[in-house]
Every structure is written in C-alpha cells, then in structure tokens.
Amino acid sequence: MAMKPKIHPPNGNGYSSDNCGGGGGCGNTSPSPPTSPPRHSHFRRRVKSKVHYVHSLKESFGGGYGILFRRNLLLLSLLYVSGLLMCVGPFSAFVSGPTLPGSFYRSHEMFGRLWRDIEADNSSAIELSSVWKFKRRLKEQKPCPNSTAGRRFESSGPTGYLIVEANGGLNQQRSAICNAVAVAGLLNAILVIPRFDFHNVWRDPSEFGDIYDEDHFIATLEDYVKVVKKLPEALMERHDYNITNVPTFRVQAWASVNYYLGEVYPVLQKQGVIRLAPFANRLAMNVPPHIQSLRCLTNYEALRFSSPITTLANKLVNRMIEKSSRTGGKYVSVHLRFEEDMVAFSCCVYDGGKAEKIEMDLLREKGWKGKFKRKDRIILPSLNRITGKCPLSPLEVGMMLRGMGFGNDTSIYLASGKIYQAGRHLAPLLKMFPHLHTKESLATPEELATYEGFSSRLAALDYIVCLSSEVFVTTQGGNFPHFLMGHRRFLYDGHAKTIMPDKRKLVVILQDMGLSWKAFKDQMKEMLNESDRKGIMVPRVRKLNRKTSVYTYPLPECRCLQKSDKNLMNPNSTFSNYQLKSMRHEMENQT
Q: What are the transmembrane regions (predicted)?
C-alpha cells in the first residue's frame, strides 16, 4: 500500500505548519536522523488463530469441554507467567538484587591497579603496518549501471525542479545530498543545490559552497542529473521570491521508490517545482541499480570538500605523518564521543560522584527541557552500560589500545569536540600515549580562526585526517564513523581498517578486578582480530533487497567506481595512496 503524500501549506519559518517529523513523534527535537520504520506485524493473524483454536477446543470436547479447557487454560496461564518472569527477571536485577558484571564504571580502578604493568610493557608493541591481516578478494570490476537519470521520462525532458533542505550535522547532511541526487535521478528532476537547515544543536550557518566544491559537484553529475545553483527567475517570481511558498512534502523516513513515483512525481509534474523538508534518511536503501549508482557517484566523486577545507586538511595530514616518524609515518585516529552533551544525553555514570550527577542533571534540563523527567521515561545507567550504550571514556580507549598491542610511541589523532572535564579525563590517556594530537594542537590559532563557530567545517577536517590514518577507532557509533568506515572500505580494497570494540564485552572486562594484565591483553587482541575480520565483510545484496546502508557498506554496488590504478585516489580524498606512501617512505629514511 503506497503512503499518502503529506503536502503542507508553508508558514513563515521555512517549515510546514505540522510539527510532527516524518520519522518520529511530535515534539521530538533530537538531531538524530529518523529511525527505521517499524516492521509489519502479524499480530492480528495470531489473535485470529488463537480465537479459532479456542472454538475448536469447544467443538472437540463438547459437553466435557469445561474441565479440560480449564486445565489447558491454567497450563497456558502458567506458561505465560513463567515466560514473563524470565523476561522481567534481568530487568528487575537493576532495580533490586545483585548487580550484573559490567554495570558500574570501575575502569579508573582497573587502570590504577594495572598501570605499572602497562607502563613496563612496551617491548612487544604491534607494528602499524601489520595490524590488518585479513585481505579481501575483490570480484572482477564491472562497469557501473547506466546511471543516466530519468530514462523513462526522457522524451518529455526534465519534470521540474527539486529543492531539498538537508538537516543534521556534516554526515547526516552528506546522506541527504546523496539521497537528493538519487531522488532527482528517479524523478528526472533538476536538482537545486541543497540547502542546509540551521539547527540549534550544531548551530552552523554554513552553506553548501562553504563545505563542498559546488562547481565540481555540478560538473561531476552533469551527464547524470542536472544541478543548478538556484531556481529560475520566473519560478522565484511565481512564489514571491520566498522558497517556503513552494509546495512542500514531508516525506516519511525510508520512503520507497514506489512512493516517490506514485505520490511525489505527479505533483512535481503538475507544479514544476517541489520542496522536501526536512530531508535526511527519506529514501529506502532498496532502489534500482542505476539509482544506487548515483548515490555512489555522489558520495565518492561529486562531493569534494571546498578548497579552504582541503588545503588545511592536507597540512594537518602532512603534520601527522611528520610526527609519526617513529612508526613509518603511520598513525591511529580515534573518534572520541566524550563531549559533555554526549555524556549527559547518554545518562551514563562515570567516576565524578555527586558533583558529576548534579552537573549532568543541569545539562540535561538545559539542553532537553524536561525530556528526561517525564514519568514514562525510566533512566537506568547500569542497563545503558552493559548494553554498550555508554560512550567510552578516554581512559578506556587508552587501555583498550595498549591491551591490543599499540606501543606508547604510537601517534594518535583525536577527532572530537570539547572533551568533558578534559584535564581530568585526558590525563590517563596522555600517560599511555604521550604523542596525542588534535586539530587544535596541529594547526595554528590563525589557521583555525575562520573555523570557529562552524562545527561542520571542523568535522570535515577531522573526517579527512581520520580517512588518511592507518587505523581508525570508533567508540560510539553515529553518522561520522559509519560514513568514514564506508569511505575507507571504498579506498582500501574493501577493508574498513577500523577498530570496532565490542562494548558489551569490554565493560565486563574493565570491571573484573581479578584480571591480570596478560589476560587483559589476550582479550583485547581477540577483539582486535574480530575487528579485522569484520572490516572486510560485504553484505549479501540481492536485487532490490539491500538491508544495510550503502554508505557504510559501499560494496558491491560502488565497486565499479574504484580506480583500477591503486596509486590513484578519488578527488574527494586528501592524498593519493602514492603520495601517502612517498611521505611515509621519507619518514622511514630519516629514521
């Protein structure tokens, strides 16, 4: 059944008058992309079958039905109650009873107990060039599907103009741009350069051209989807030079191809221009091959960062390579999500005691206005921790990496916002890895001056430096690591070269006060090996049946875009593989 379009009369604030987003409930101010649509349920069918079963019992037992049926009903009731107790049992353990392993933060105690062993153990450090042992045998490279947009509509020319408003941070906006190109191709529409929605969380007023190279974007897509910088004068005049007067769709999350063709296309054809706002994950992953190819082309070729961002990012990568001369110019990048708003939103408890609780409560109230005080909201920090939802602290990241075998001479690039209580929380990480760098420590104040107050531009710098690292470490999930892992898979022969810690397992290990340093290292090396194995995984993709994100797992569909010459890297990247190898070779000669 096709979804009905939601077309709203515009108001003065740039959005339709309905406050309910396509992917969430009313009043949801979370900056996260819309959640996946719920799976279809067969509950009604089950209810009908149960009713039929009861009637059949009555017919089978006739007059003697009463006693036997009561016995069966009693048995079913007992089974139901026992099952309920099994489900509620683990939950009730957080309310009362013994605590479960890993439910409390004791990593600082573990560090204090093992620090002497950690400090003394640097003789068997892992070589960065030999971290990744698994190799992927890539299938023969085939040409990309014919991505010429709107083949079914070619005879009548373009249908009209498509305007999208991308919301969220850097990589959520990136997703929106790729999806916008795909939708434009699907509808044979002319795409207007996407507009970026200003959100009170990121507070970044940057426009498309501030972050990406507009001319390169238009030129790369020229033979596939026509892109223009603004609407024609006649259309602007028709809508009183106010973009909010354009007919607006609020598309549901993960909308299907059939929805766009059946509901959106007729309106576009009639009106000549439509606006999709907000627009993030509003297109299903299951799309025809030639439309999927547009996503690949946009993400890995058309979206090249602007010249100012690329120039500074080149300098940062070069400086990281120079500072990594001890390890042949190779370095580790860590995406650390331990900013104060992230810690507050997670509702996790660390080692700050009562003062931390008071501070976090104030931050939650200031940032989310009573969201965490609703009667229907149960906050269980212990449950969050053992289910892997708590951000890893800098101390935990350091212990994990030392346990995996990374020596104290390893250069680490920290991609992060302002760390919560940075002085206290970064101190143990610096003890374990003294060669710790950030964009703030690598760049001069003058170089970063023009980036202050622009969170997406700062995130773009982090993105490029992390993309060029030998090892990338993700600690909390989100759009940044998902896009980065996909980009690394695309560039590095299908291997993400990413450490993805099993946090459910890690929190249990970090609370085991009887564990020796040797036993801890064995566990961490096993976790590294698992990341290595998962790094080359490619999901099974049947025709129009993709269940995973093409941005995180770009193969096999994006394989056709990979350069046959391994010395060449696509123009979206900072350095080519050849350039990186040359600079690292110079570092080795110097040492």
A: 73-95
